[in-house]
Amino acid sequence: MSGGLTALGAAEIASRVAARTLSAEDVARAHLDRLALLEPKLDAFLQPLPERALARARQLDAELAAGRPAPPLAGVPLAVKDVLDIEGLATTCGSRILESYRPPFTATAVQRLEAAGAIVIGKTNMDEFAMGSSTENSAYKKTRNPWDLDRVPGGSSGGSAAAVAAGIAPIALGSDTGGSIRQPAAFCGIVGLKPTYGRVSRYGLVAFASSLDQVGPFTRSVEDAARVATSLCGWDAQDATSARQAVPDFEAALREDVKGLRIGVPWAFLEKGVDAAVMERFRAALAAFEAAGARVVDVALPHAPHAIATYYIVATAEASSNLARYDGVRYGRRAAAAGLRKMYGDTRDAGFGPEVKRRIILGTFVLSSGYYDAYYRRAQQVRTLIRRDFDAAFAACDVIATPTSPAPAFRLGEKTGDPLQMYLEDIFTVPANLAGLPGLSLPCGFTAGLPVGLQLLARSFDEAMLFRAGAAYQRVTDHHRQSPPLGEQS
Ligand code: GLN
User: Fold this and answer.
1) pLDDT tens digit string along 373-387?
2) Strand 399-403 and strand 450-457: pairing?
3) pLDDT of residue 375
4) What is residue 147's three-state secondary structure?
5) Residue 117 beta carbon below 6 angstroms from any ligand 1 atom
6) What share of the chain is helix, strand, coil (3-state, %, to 5)?
7) Which residues of 301-328 are buried (b: 16+ CB within 10 A; e: fewer)?
8) 3-state DSSP call for residue 143?
9) Closest-lying ligand 1 atom to the alpha carbon of residue 212
10) Which of 16, 68, 367, 390 has minimal CB crowding within 10 Å?
11) pLDDT by residue (tens digit) across 113-158?
12) What are 81's strand-pairing partners?
């Protein structure tokens, strides 16, 4: 990233646009230019929206000139994962089956950020129906990691993460069902927040697994994450699962220190299978927290090793039910076939990719009458045990820290032949989804030129704790200030 407008963070852009020393139109133009420049390399976007963005930016400039008080994200360019609806625009969810779908409404998450002054510059690539850890399951294109174009950006929100890391947008929206915000944030060297279950409205979010899905932001700093979260969070009458919980001043939490804070590390859970260099960065991050006055304590998450098995039962069961609605009648594409049953079958056969079919078959199996007790019911029981482990752990600590992923970004194609290997990517991220907890991934260093992510987890609805700890860490480190070697000027 060069030192121009595309290097600025959200808070900086908003304050300059508010002061009218910078126009929203110039900001939008700089980011759209960078999008056009880098898209051939990165393939991060499914749908750039230059005209819409410039029109909205001009409108905001005119309103500010007329004396409208500046909103908190005034003129901040925003990239939106294609799992979120925007009225009248294609929302494909990375799938052929939704190729022709144009939603008649806008997701609350997008609508709130637009109301806060953000300017949507495009919709980003993703694994089909958010199923994956590499964005290679998109039906349209494979996004590349800005730090190494031969590697994946992580997934499923890989397009959004790549866009923010490459300076195409300072903020982006993603969704996290088992790690799809935190893992790509880690792979791309940026900040990703999965809010508490119920914290952010899911109205207009295409459902994958309804008891796990959450919408959240990507940013390059913890400060910006707090700024975006303040506009994003809160109860919504349109979403019955959104929580009636007050949203505190997240930006106030940024100013607190970490003296006396107890950071719990589930050492036994980390014992197996973490890359040596990742472990070294993780230990260095803990040392930085200790130097800032925090205390590192050992906590136990005895059932966490079962989180992957549990997740892939619960998530596939819910997905098989949620995806039943794509039948060629109500949404998107329809196969030409004589007879209703054949039309259903042909539509789904042509419309869904292999990973989505695998999940639907798995989910249908675990819910089937003969196997329900052995798989689905058992998984729900283990899920309760995982949640109780966290309750016990949080009696002894304020934040839990782990690496976000066991290893840095892998090569394109490296894991596509082995779905189980791909699923194991999520070992440190899925427990928070099963328990409904908030989680933050932030950059904690590099190994062989690739970013490494630190994951922090907190009690339900205590995102403020994540911002407090994350901001304290970013005050004493500069990993988040590094930018990928794209060799471009803009
Ligand atoms: N990688 C996980 C999966 O494939 C998580 C995806 C997500 O969070 N949307 O299910």
Assistant:
1) 999 999 999 999 999
2) antiparallel
3) 95
4) coil
5) no
6) 45, 15, 45
7) bebbebbbebbbbbbbbbbbbbbeebbb
8) coil
9) 8
10) 68
11) 999 999 999 999 999 999 999 999 999 999 999 999 999 999 999 9
12) 124
Among 29, 469, 90, 162, which residue's Cα sits nearest to residue 289? Answer: 469
pLDDT digits (tens, 9 = 90+) for 92-115: 999 999 999 999 999 999 999 999
128 Cβ inside 6 Å of ligand 1: no
Ligand 1 atom nearest to 176, measured from its CA:
8
* Ligand 1 center–CA 179 separation, angstroms: 6
pLDDT tens digits, residue range 280-290?
999 999 999 99
* Cα 354 to ligand 1 centre (Å): 15
- Give yes or no for residue 3 having a pLDDT over 60: no
Between 273 and 211, where is the model more confident?
211
Give the DSSP per-residue string, 344-355: HHHHHHHHS-HH
Q: Please say whether the beta carbons of 262 and 474 come within 8 A.
A: no
Q: What is the DSSP letter of 128?
A: G
Please identify every residue annotated as catalytic. Answer: 81, 156, 180
Torsion of CA 301, 303, 307, 310, to 10 degrees: -150
How many Å apart are CA 231 and CA 300, to the nearest integer? Answer: 35
pLDDT tier, 422 (very low <50, low <70, confident <90, very high otherwise): confident
Q: How far is the CA of 133 from the centre of ligand 1 (A)?
A: 6
Between 487 and 200, the more confident residue is 200
Q: With a 6 A CB cut-off, is 178 part of the ligand 1 pocket?
A: yes
Q: Does the structure show a pLDDT above 60 at 489?
A: no
Q: Does the pTM exceed 0.85? A: yes
Residue 271 clears pLDDT 90, i.e. is over it: no
Residue type, 181: I
pLDDT in tens, 26-77: 999 999 999 999 999 999 999 999 999 999 999 999 999 999 999 999 999 9
Separation in Å, CA 131 to CA 93, 194, 312: 10, 16, 11
d(CA 7, CA 483): 9
Residue with structure tokens 């930085």?
Answer: 288
Quote the tokens at residue 149. 């174009």
Pair of tokens at residue 229? 């979260």
> Which atom number of ligand 1 is nearest to the Cα of residue 181?
8
What are the distances in angstroms from CA 412 to CA 61, 141, 165, 299, 425?
42, 12, 18, 35, 14
Closest residue by Cα to residue 182 from 279, 209, 174? 174
Phi and psi based region of residue 260 (left: phi greater than 0; alpha: psi -120 to 50; beta: remaining): left
